[in-house]
Amino acid sequence: MRQPADDHTTGRRSDVRELRPAPGDRGPLPRREAPHEDLPLDRNQAILQAAKQVGSTLKKAEHPFALAGSVAVYAHGGTQNLQHDVDFCIRPEDADAVAATLRRAGLTVYTPPEDWLLKADCLGQQVDLIFELAHEPVTTELLARARDLSVDSVLMPVLSPTDLLHGLLAAFSEHHCDFGAVLPIARTLREKIDWAALRRDCGDDPMPAAFFYVLERLEIIPPAGPPATASKEGPR
């Protein structure tokens, strides 16, 4: 899961040498000791396995959370073209408790330089535990809108399609505006997204407005209606 400030660190996200172990963690296991022997050869399936394991662990501990990112898109019916990590949303106040739960389950948890997430390693896959989306804290209300969906046979809460796309659009800026990465998500989930809510919340910003225009020209969404205007006659 990217934020606008990630652009200069894109090539370093998978380098655990730049991450600091979270308090109470003894540091990463040597790569040769990581339990990779049961991993499937297919990378998409490996990411799904990591998502299932972390989701099951958080569910058993009754932590409020929701699956996000490309695995959430897949759970909502998108294609199984998963990205390089697994994303979960958690509340900021739950970060320490979630980290402790994952450490007890045998996972290594890291505190990266960015102050809006934690990172963990599960089955050799990177897991991001995000407590801010586009610089807005993850809230109880956001997690309450998540739906329980089957993720490769494991039921867990998944961010709503509208909230998924809102997080991506709100992160657009002049330094980070990758329409190509978001366009397939909008196209695949278009019938499940509240476009009126997205236009209301993001449409005044130039980058999301430009994205809506692209979607309109591609006939993925209908054009927005004309803005409401007051009557010229005035009150009678």
Helix vs. strand class: alpha+beta
Largest sheet: 6 strands, mixed
Number of helices: 8
Number of beta strands: 10
Strand numbers in spatial order across the main sheet: 1-4-5-6-3-2
Mean pLDDT: 83
Distance from N terminus to C terminus (CA atoms, Å) equals 54 Å
User: What percentage of the residues does DSSP assign to strands (E)?
Assistant: 15-25%
Q: Could you please describe the fold and organization of this structure?
A:
The model is unreliable at 4-20, 28-37 and 228-236 (pLDDT under 50). The protein has 236 residues and is of the alpha+beta class. The strands form 3 sheets. The protein has a 6-stranded mixed sheet. Strands 7-8 form a two-stranded antiparallel sheet. A two-stranded antiparallel ribbon has the order 9-10. It is globular, with a radius of gyration of 19 Å. A hairpin with a 5-residue loop joins β4 and β5 (117-122). The protein contains 8 helices and 10 strands. α5 packs parallel to α7 (195-202). The protein has helices at residues 43-60, 69-75, 95-104, 140-144, 161-170, 179-188, 195-202, 206-217, and strands at residues 20-21, 65-68, 85-90, 108-111, 117-122, 125-130, 132-133, 136-137, 147-151, 154-158.
